[in-house]
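Let us practice reading a record.
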Amino acid sequence: MSTVSSFLFTAGYVMGAVRELTRYALGFCWAMLLPKAKLAARVLAAESQLTVEMNRSGGDKRRRRQFTLAFRLLWVALSKALEGWEDLVHLMKPETVKRWHTTAFRLFWRWRSRPGRSPVSFEMQTLIRRLSRENPLWGAHRLRDVLLLLGYEAPCAETIRKYLVKPRKPRSPSTTSLPFLRNHLEVSWAIDFFTVTTLGF
């Protein structure tokens, strides 16, 4: 009886090994038919999970696996680019990868939708003040055009206007032609009617 049991056990063990070897051989033949990019993605998926399993400190299998940010982003990319990626997941559930994808998508759009403009750097502020000080007649729009010509990523005119250097003594407005005529009306009304004859006339 013991001989028969030993024979059946050995036969079952051998048959299990044969089935496993057959599965490996079929997997190898199927991998040979895959495109190189898809095969490389499958290898990367397997190696990433193997690295996580090997990094479990002290060989404590009860310790919870630590999935890094790079590992999660990798699997988010694999889930979008690799067909049948669910069959390659062994250390976590496919639902976990989908949850990582949702979180990454939410964080990305939160970053894209952040309020306000990007702050103006200190170097740009210094350059705006320098140009404004050296060219007091330039306005915000003219300064922005000059910054663009110099190859800088210039902020908008409203932002530049905040950093313009204010003159200590504001310039008096220039006299127009109408006030000039009013101020000199008494001495200029007869300019075209009287002439003075000189030697060279």
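A brief commentary: The two ends are 151 Å apart (CA to CA).
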